[in-house]
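Attaching the record inline, Q. Sequence:
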Amino acid sequence: MAAIRGARSGGAIAGLRQNYLQHAMQAFSGAMKGVPLLPDLFHPDRWLLWLGVLFVLSVYYFPTGVVGQLRARLKK
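Structure, as predicted:
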């Protein structure tokens, strides 16, 4: 049962990240027009790169998953 909750919450988080990451990167890239290198680094076409970076960071910081991490905090 817990695995189903984890998969559902992980899928929802991944879907939200994917949908809003491109829009956030477009706004950030536009705001950094005068700064060298940053507008190109955060260009909306590079959203898959940053999605991968976010995935690696989430695996590193949530080794037991998001639900497992929340359960561990609630037990404390």
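The first helix runs from residue 2 to 31. The two ends are 22 Å apart (CA to CA).

More tomorrow.
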